[in-house]
Give the backbone structure.
Amino acid sequence: MIDKAAWADATAGIGNWRGEFEGGAHGAGISVIFVFTEKIGGGPHLHQHPYPETFIIRNGHVRFTVGNETIEASGGQIVVCPPNVPHKFENLGPGPLEQIDIHEAGAFETLWLE
């Protein structure tokens, strides 16, 4: 068991989940990013991974760029990005974006393209 204090960003506030977990050190073949951003336009720059990434949108509205495709998604939807495909996302608002990003690797490996 891993307590929230070990992976959570303490600045996110008690009720919000934001932080990262690398599972390899615990015998898991996944790593997870818990996204919480209130900033409209907030999200990572264009990047890619050598493994698939699955995005579970919990709340909010988000625009993904996955390769040459633009995808708008909202709470309850799931977006999957194949390995080695450049991608990014941004909070469309109004309000916060909450999502769980599952990396199919025990540690994060990211190539930043912007």
